[in-house]
Batch of 3 targets.
Target 1
Amino acid sequence: MSLNHLTIHEASDGISKGTFSSAELTQAVHQHIARVDATVHAYQTVLPNARPNTYALRANAGNATSVLQGIPVAIKDNICTENVVTTCGSRMLENFVPPYSATVMTRLEDHGAVLVGKTNMDEFAMGSSTEHSAFEPTRNPWDPQRIPGGSSGGSAAAVAAHECIASLGSDTGGSIRQPAACCGVVGLKPTYGRVSRYGLVAYASSLDQIGPLTKDVTDAAIMFEVIAGYDSHDSTSVTMPVPEISRSLHRDMTDIRIGIPDEYFGDGLDAEVEAGVRAALEVLSARGAKTKVVSLPATPYGIATYYLIATAEASSNLARYDGVKYGYRSAEAQDLMEMYRQTRREGFGAEAKRRIMLGTYALSAGYYDEYYGKAQQARTMIRADFEAAFQEVDVIITPTTPTPAFRLGEKLNDPLQMYLSDIYTISANLAGFPAISVPCGFSHDGLPIGMQVMGRWFDELTILQVAFAFEQETNWHLRRAPLSEVGDA
Amino acid sequence: MSDYDVVIGLEVHAQLQTNTKLFCGCSTAFGAQSNTQTCPVCLGLPGALPVLNSKAVDMAIRTGLALNCSITTPNQFARKNYFYPDLPKGYQISQFDRPICEHGWVDIELDQGGQRVRICRAHLEEDAGKNMHQTGVGVSHVDMNRCGMPLLEIVTEPDLRSSDGAVVYLKTLRDTLVYLEVCDGNMEEGSMRCEPNVSLKPKGQEAFGTKVELKNINSFKFVKHALDYEIQRQAAVLTDGGKITQETRSWDPERGISVVMRSKEEAHDYRYFPEPDLLPVEIPEETINALRDRLPELSKAKCERFITEYALPPYDAALLTSSRPLADYFEACVAGFQNPKTVSNWVMGELLHALKNDNIDVGSSPMKPDRLVALMTLVEDQTISLKTAREIFLDLFRSQQAPADFVQERGLTQISDDGALETLIDDIVRKHPSQCAEYQGGNEKLLGFFVGQVMKSSKGKANPQKVNTLLQQRLASEKVAT
């Protein structure tokens, strides 16, 4: 087994016992990137390993007691990294080098993590396949003909292909969990407000949340503990203390009540995915957890609600890419209006433009009440559904995605079909609560299947404990994607 | 003109005197080199987030309370979306349907009597940057230092009926803002900006006419010019049977006219929606009460108190309370010197004259209240004469010296000692026997002559009142002795 196959906790053990060094570990990661990333294209930018970058230097001076000390991690390319280009998967920011780091990046550095590179993504995190990257699509390490999910497809693929030990993604409507499910890794979307968004290039501010993609649940807890917590730079971050989850993962399941919403097991759900999730529920029942059917009647409004709120906020968030101060500027323009028009025409891809137009429309005079206003009402209903359900159960378990990873190009020209990929993940963003996707099986053609565990606000502890209990009973998370084995002696 | 009623409403942007910007820690100091007071937040860099400056919120509440507004809780920020090069995020963080202050009023004094001007709302928002156009080179630059400066936009109902009324309202509002120490009220530097809207309607008609908004008015003087121009313009159009177009016009002070900036058709749809990066701002009742308790006395109340408490003439009281620093100066002096009218005379006379002469504002006066008190006390206890005090004022004002030392060093101390004065008087009476006889013969006007001689021989240092008394006694006793 190569060093790059290790989890954070395994690698940290090895480094602290002196079995190998952080440099050797990082070297192994870089060698594997050299072997497979031309195929996977998980990375948008790989930081040079040969010459020490500022992050590695700071890592050496980092906190020797942290479990992240010397661990190579990858960061989604919409998280600002000082002096390292941050493209957001867009031509618009192809050459944008932030003068500051996101709070999560600073926290990782403070804990001694080594930044390997920035991962590919759908442009401005808008998409479910990473095909909307302005540069090149990322491939699924389990089958390069298939998409890795999105928009954090690069972060999920980098973990699944073992091109890093762990990574960070961002999740607005499922952008961590859906690619985690597609790539057979663990993906956690924390409660809205848990993790600072400062330095995360905004897509939809009231929905965006940064979270980890990892090889197992323990690693997700470790990463979560490091990045979570109040940040005075983000007014929506909360002051609530973060529990030490990674040391409290073992929990008796007999007092856990699991809610199973009918609405998430209906039309459009692939039979193999359903079978995988049902089998997983059996595993948890066998551990003593009680299951109960719950009702979430507002579920059908989820997609429409999401695509009104997210696009409305996006239309405003993306207004700053105007060619004036940074980023792409059209060389053609002769006057101000032309500069705006040409810059945005040339700098944004089709999906970004589509969402900007949708959102602009939803906020326009005369339409606001009908669209944005209605969507806010529906959002309140969806939240109320879950609040009621969480009176009766501790977690809600659903499939993460309706199908395993689809083929590249399959839904690229059918936005509505593409949008349905997020049908099970969107509610957690609209209502703000935490959710995790863990591997729970494989399709007949060897594609990973993900199970989603959702919990109460700020109760990451319980969903991680349930996910951990499941992981203890199964080996799905230990399977390796074919592309992670390339060149492995 | 007299065929129409004038209807004016005013929007005033007051820049709040915080040390840092509304949503980031950058300095608000005026006049720094372009683009040196910026950070990822006010530059609108990808990923940067706003954090509300609580000092600005306090100032907005204080202003709202002083303008008799209700304070909205929770109030909420909203994004106002439009493209312009001086607006780095492509939206301005402002307030829309939940402004921090609402439904207040300002009472103003006009020649024809008092008027209440209703305040519709006052809301917090960030300022934009400044576009700088170089003529002829085809390139423009943007200075982002002003981006994110805290503004309070104060909006009246269309209650004003003349350009004079508008100016009085503005001056009253400025007084209040300056008194509250929330805004320096400087229109020329742009820390107070005014955007009036004007419409005309035939006399007696209920319904308002079509309104026109005026921009780019950056001094009190231009407010009246611009309004009068617009009133004349609209009256002429209406009298000719024309219609007023709803539009925004820009005042050109050099040409003394306004020109169309944009018509209603070109008006923006700002697509306001609640700012998701900032939580609604909850303002506890205790906070409002605490701020209300700490509100300073405003100029009108202070003026009335000066009249009753210090028995000052209304003219003095009005002048002394025209600015808070001046009123504070006066009161600091009164605390150390018991005669308020004497203090008032000195402050309104010598002090203001010297300040104006040296172009200094009262807050930075080198003559602090303690030195003025010391000077007035020297006159009071007859160490120096009033005349001397006045003569030395400007030099003393510009020096850092204590008045007693200043007087001592220059030997200006007045001679009040009876013995010393009698010696001087003896000498003069003896030198002028004929005038003495004439006086004793009944020509009492000659007393002035003797006083003059004594003052001259003392080089002006003799206490003139004492000289007067002693001379009269001495000349009378001569008469008896003769």
Target 2
Amino acid sequence: MSEQRTFTRRQALKLMGVGTLGTYLAACASPAAPAATTDGSGDAEMPAGEKKTISISHIGGGSLEASEKSQRMQLLRANFPDIEIENRWVSYGGYLDKIPVQIASGDLADLQFCNAFNDIPLMMENEIIIETGPLLEEYGQNIVAVTPAKAWDSTIYDGKQYAVTHNIYDLNIWCSQYRGDWLDKLGLGVPETIDEYGEVLRAFSNSDPDGNGKKDTWGRLLYNSVRFDDDFFHAFGVAVGHHLNGFWRERDGQLALDWVQPGMKDALAWMSDVWADGGFHPDSISIPLGQKDNAFHASFAGNVYTSWNSIDFAQDKIRTVDPDAVIVAGPAPAGPGGRGYTGEGWPWCFVIPITAQWPEDCVRIIDWFFTPDIAAQIMCEGVLGVTNKGLNENGWCVEYTPEEKAAMGDEWANKQNEVQDISVFWGLWLTIGTLGGVQPFPTFPPDMKKHFEDMLAAKYSENALAAKDLSQEYLLLTEKARPVAAEKEFWPGLQTRFGEFISQAVAGAIDLDQGWSEWLDFFEKNGGPLITEQVNQI
Amino acid sequence: MATSAVSKTLQGASGQWKRYLAQLLITVWTHRYLYLMLVLPFIFFIIFRFYPMVGNIIAFKKYQLMHGIWGSPWVGLKHFRSLFDDPAFLRVLRNTLSIAALKLLVTFPAPIVLALFINEIRHMVYKRFVQTIVYVPHFLSWVIYGAILYIMLSPANGLINNVIASLGMEKIAFFQKPILFQPIVIISSLLKETGWAAIIYLATISTIDLTLYEAAIIDGANRWQLMRYVTLPGLAMTIVTLFILQIGFFLNVGFEQIFILQNSMVLTTGDVIETFIYRVGIRQARFDFTTAAGLFNGLVGMVLVLMADRLAKRMDLPGIF
């Protein structure tokens, strides 16, 4: 009878230890292979019979599958038969996380979509993108012709340009919108000043504007961290800046951050008063950002600050619960510091990493989108021939008007369902400005330009177009051109601390005077002066 | 003379090593099929658990993409110094420790108690109904569960606040009060995961020898005494093992849950190491700095596991090593 031998835990642990150590040593012994790089001169040669491969990273709704099926992608591939287009779609919801990881891992596409304010400094620090100025001069004439000079500011380092294209229309699309029917019932007009505005918010909350006898309405729901509520901050001569990105203005010949100006304290005191009077929805600040417009759409809040082009959609939505609802846009409320709506500026662009083998072709591809004939085919919303009318006799796309959509009834809903993934996809084409509605290029011939201007006019209600004008009229942009080095270390801490401070101050959770001095002290001790110094050196 | 002694010692050691290796090989061959089954999990752990650990080295470097992990310059303990100089990190460390301790104290024993109670239910249909009800929340993601909590606790029209108002009290903005954040985290964890965590204890209870219960009943034990002197000792090994394993994740307080529930008003008590790493490491791409934070997190976990293991052995309970 043989003895049953057992494998003890001690032996197992030793075996695992030896294996782990061996693997670790093996890993240490094999340094990461350097990535293949190019100097951007485009000297790479293509073996006969083989296609060049160019990967494009871009963001959008829908899915990778949907972007693959889209007419735009098919058109792109058909136009560049000698190039294998590798589609690297990134979801709109995930790009904030995905892009830094792509940068850190070196897994960048040949045409890499990014946020100029957040991502280019990181790429510059790691020296992984190429200068694009000379390439644009040679291969990107259509891009250059339609891009405003100011758009490039965030991509220029030491006088050199590091992006191949930008969103060509600034994202100045926000304005204040009100329940016009509630204002009428309460005998109030659209507010012009910050005091009138405060009264409107209080009345929406406390005077039963929906007339149901219940206390179930509020003035406005503040967004998460109060970071998207710049309309009333500007009345005090300051702003938070979308996404807590900061807002810089020239003061005494120097650029200074609004967050530490006395007007900020005044704005917070004003908001705190309105909060105490019940003017803001009690779920404000704590509610997830994704639900920011819900209270307005559900007819609980009478005012919202959001993009002008959502006004018709919002009205339709509210009319499902209140058939008499009317939405009107208003001017930025004026106060002691002025008035304004914050524009996002030009955050989104494409860059070319040093790993790209065919930088000239990358520019050619993007430039192709900007040629008038191509742009006129792809700039409409919807899927060609399904959720838009397709191309007219000139080869220019045509959208359905709201009346035509309404007349289609269920057929329109079916069309939308049929292509829902594709219709919400605008990723790669974001840069040509479809986010703010179809906008003709300055390089379009007059008849083509008129076609798209007419289409834009027919697409929105008068109220929406008035809102568009207001959002343009009160536009204010931060004067800081681009991020500076010190921000990487200090900005996250400042951003978190400031967001925390203003939220608590507005809700009256802290003493404003004490909180304000603590915040100023934090700013002084945690990189604020260094960032200010570097911003003024740009 | 001395040389000869050293040589003999070395030869002895070498001989011992050879014998040990031979014995090991024989053992492996004897149980070859068991080892074969281990190969795939072992490869998985090597590739996805151990190899990535090599990257921890960037906690001691200024990580630059162009130069890679190995080519980036060494900075010694700079990131650790920055970490402990950062007032935000000290706050997240304090919050993490506080939430972790509360979770350990409250959510670890809860499933044991629940399992003991469920085990006492004699009506089988009711027992299964209760089990199902307490398992269900586990299958909801924190996104959904968090949204339900927001709706239930909303000061505008939430169910809980409506009850509070109907009792004549003032509504409470639960998610705007830093003092309430940690209790909300603990209670929501308790409600969501206790039922699921009780499964393993219920399974262990089902393996306890029934003759022990019969003997105790003959000796005159009542139900409470059966639970105290038969069921609970039968669970001891499982409790200790799970406790030590949980201790290993002591500082991992649950990113998803905290991230979903926190907002800028409750960061004072709600910002934890995991959300800090996400915010600074991923969003701001300071991978080297936050790797230092992660490494610190892991080291604390390892030390706690070793301590818990040693403590268990001192109490004559089985450890995990």
Target 3
Amino acid sequence: MATAPEVEAPADPLEAFRAQARAWLAENFPPALKGKDNSMSAVEGPTELNADEAAWKQAMGEKGWGVPTWPAEYGGGGLDRAEARVLAEEMGRIGAWNPIGGMGVMMFGPTLLEYGSEAQKREHIPPIVRGEIRWCQGYSEPNAGSDLANLQTFAEDRGDHYVVNGQKTWTSGGQWADKCFALVRTDKSKKHEGISFLLIDMDTPGVEVRPIRLISGSSPFCETFFTDVKVPKANLVGRVGEGWTIGKRLLQHERSSLSGGGSTAGRMFLGEPISSIAKRWLGTDDQGRIADLDLRTRIVRHEMDLRAFLLTLRRAQLEAKSNQGPSATSSIMKNVGARIMQERSELLIEIRGLAGLGWEGEGFGEEELKDVRTWLFGKAVSIYGGSTEIQNNVIAKRILGMLDHQ
Amino acid sequence: MAVLTEEQTMIRDMAREWADNESPVTAFRRVRDTAPAAMFDAQAWQAQAEMGWAGILVPEEHGGAGMGYLSLGLVMEQLGRNLAATPLAATAAAAGAILIGGSAAQQAEWLPRIAAGDLVATLAVDEGPRFAPDRIGAAVNGGRLTGTKAFVAEGDGAGLFVVAATDGLYLVEKGEGVTVAPRHLADARSHAEVRFENAVAQKLDGPADLVTRAADRATAIVCAEMLGMAESAFAQTNDYLKTRVQFGQPLSSFQALQHRMAKMFTELELMRSVVEGALEAIDANRPDVSQSVSLAKAVAGETLRLVSSEMVQLHGGIGMTDEHDAGFYLKRARVLETMWGNAAWHRERFARLSGY
């Protein structure tokens, strides 16, 4: 091969960075917050930060280490991959967590860094780095779900600005968001090429948000209505008609964050294994086996599936690092991650019987009540971010080279 | 693909090239049709020995390559792709047992001959049609072994048997007191009932769990062969769907089939991870070798069953004909799924080892 493999930075500078990171974390991470990760609040809605949380968030925001590999010129950490890995190790060592999250970090920021103008990057990246601005995603519409390119929300060109009319749906965190990155139609005569990528302030007159109540009882998503909403031309990202390309790139960031680097499954694995929960609830027979043998078999299958998934994640990471050519594994991670998460929830209900279906009130443990909501919300995992069926289309067409139907 | 060393990449590429050029499925078909007494491709086995594969696991001081199980697995995977009919898996499994349990003298006696390809060896554990290492009746008295082993892989051509008896593993050379009767299974490979009557037996000392350790290694080797078979069966099916036209379109344009293929591809990726994981666990001598091997065999068994069945179904009528190769994959798949424990057996062991 002509190119040399990526050379790890010599041990010394990296160890120097480790010492530096360790010292900074010792000075800035409040020990009281150890292990009390509230990063999901970015998805689940705003929570009141206590003094420690606020201080930690501010410190990480100013340091840029919430987004360690983003360029320093926009406030990011400016670290290389090896340094970012060291930082993560050092944070893990003391139970520190990243207080900077949300869609700005996971999806919009990386996309804007790639496609945004200099002015747009200077305006929008620093507030994301500091965790000050919440972004939401204006993609899906009532008639544009899996067939996203069918979207109809129209941005009419009025010289120096657009006037936007239409409706978005499944806007995650729309009711708490400050800004929205949206796919809008700028040309009705072309399907994909008629789409543009537009940034809309949520407090602009004509923007109306209605939360959607889900089967889980929570309302993490909204319907968002746009009625004669005036948006400056400066808020167009990329060129007119380039929205589909940019939007798809953003979805890649979404998928990789949904498959989570396996974080969801990883957390499950670190939590109490489902087999031990089953032993506690169902007891064991005289051979030490979970008393319900049929359920036990399905628990083994599930735990094997989880192990296989984690081994595949590890393999994908190693392959990416050793540069053995593009790995196909990332494309399957979302489907497998979803099936594992959903299966775990279903097994938990079977293990606990009706006590595993408690909705609220007395007579149920905190875990049981939480797991019921997780079970219901978890049904979304195989639907959002490209449903399992859409992922299978992607695998078949892009990886297996199967053809479009004529 | 696991992260490979330069040496491993070389041996894998060499094996792939050899399998594709020298040992396509037509070579297996020829063995099946001519049915030689030993039921393997003697010419191919000799070529493999010359390339050093018979001694992949054998240390250099005994004339081998001194490589590990991942390297052996890479070769087995390539052989599995084209159903190469040689006694490499069985011989390597026997060599693995001798490496763990053999004295210096035993290793010096047998390993050089194995590495040179002069001696086919095999590990004989089961006495019935299903894997049951806890039900062994063969026993040794005064250095003589008596008992009957069922469906011994490569039993027809083996010169050395590594035999599980009630108190451990023994080496028995083919000769007096050893009777071999072929058992023709659907896969047209060598399986034999081997009867030992007061046959001279040398004990392999070594750890108390020697039988388990030897069987785990044999299982992992078979998993690598299954991985290659599943990949090839899948690739051939994918190619076929692109060429077969019905309703004026290639079959690959039908979404019902696309999703079945996507699902199989997904399972194949998981299969590769667990199989490589087991081989790596063995090489690293990790304490969870048995769990890793059970994970690998259970997933490999189910995935190969799926892919080999779908290979026939998606080929339609042509897949039902003897002229087509699909049937070879289907038949060999079921044999390997059963050998060394089917998916249910390994799920059971995995659960027990995990404490539930």
